[in-house]
Amino acid sequence: MTNHIALFEPLMPANTGNIARTCAGTDTALHLIEPLGFKVDDKHLKRAGLDYWDSVDITYHADLQDFLASIPDLDQLYIVSKFATHDYTDVDYHDTTKDHYFLFGKETTGLPEPFMRRYPEKAIRIPQDDSHIRALNLSNSAAIVIYEALRQQQFPNLERAHLYDNDKLK
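RE: above sequence
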């Protein structure tokens, strides 16, 4: 089982770099759906991802249809949108026999409306106060959602550090 974060036409290299770093730290695959709003050798992208880039499983997709075609079971697709009616915490991510795909829209415009209308039952949201902000930061949103899935899955393959490991204090 693998968790996947997919970014639809990301524009900001720092967001993508931060998400790549989260993917490296959580053993999550990253999918980038073109066109990208930056070059993959962008210094801001590399700086945000630090030296973790070779630890990230990245797949590039020519477009949204190419990405969808790569998913073996669309039942495991979750579309993250502030317009969804179901909260991300309402979904059961326990099934570790299947991959889970979390699709995030472009920072400025989200996902295409026709696409959203086609898959409303797959949409999940992070609650927010819309009277103060338009949207949460993309990299923060990706971290919130992936850590909820990992929490439900009992954090598979993630090391648990102990603050006071007596053996390491000697």
